[in-house]
Amino acid sequence: MLQERVENLLEEAFHENNSLFLIALNISDQNHISVIIDGDNGVTVSDCVAVSRKVEGELDEDEIEFSLEVASAGATEPLKFPRQYKKNIGRTLAVQTNSNKFEGKLQQVSEDGITIEWQAREPKPVGKGKVTVDKEATIAFQDILEAKVVITF
Question: Which of 4, 123, 139, 147 is the most buried (most CB within 10 A)?
């Protein structure tokens, strides 16, 4: 019952700020509620506070004892939803599929998958040496085992 109540409150919070969306909701046996959110334009501390207040303000601590934690998805967390990919167009992703690993710039996101581009050094068709070639891969969401944004400084 607590799970359903929290899910409904989160839906209301996301309706109030439709740029935010749920990544994960976990409720432990001791009623520790952990909420991970993301947003189309990132997540601010005030976004986390607003979601926390929405949930906490509607749950009655006299009725049930709980603790609540609302956080944003970390920069090193894998992307899980197409909506997360869309906000990362133009950034470099490391993508693992069943058969390959790719690292390239996210160019496009469709309903079915993503397109990334990168450059690779390959042997010249004639003669010795190597030449730089542009590569592209279209990867279906169902084939992605893990995709992370590559953080560069």
Answer: 147
